[in-house]
Amino acid sequence: MTTISPHARALAALGHDARLSIFRLLVKAGDEGLRVSDIGEFLGLAPSTLAHHLSTLVDAGLVLQDKQGREVFNRVDFDAMRIVLGFLTSECCSGVAVQPAEDAA
Questions:
Q1: Average pLDDT over the chain, rounded to whole?
Q2: In 34, 42, 60, 86, which residue has its Cα 20 to 30 A from 93's Cα atom?
Q3: pLDDT value for 99
């Protein structure tokens, strides 16, 4: 299955424990973000594993990367996060009309 919807792509990216942990850590870090090495140290992830997961979050539009000299800083795209949250909650408690099932007899 190919993921076309930006919402589905973002949710799929967050559907892995390591990526969810990275994302939550970056949310805590705020607008300043964290260096790749700091993320790896906090979460105990190998550099190659971390690079793979960060790439997935960047491709999903949830994380932005800024190169400053030799360091790469990662931060949450809070506008993109709000869009996904808005999508998930846009119809909260609006009700659903369910038709009773007909007997097959």
A1: 92
A2: 60
A3: 86
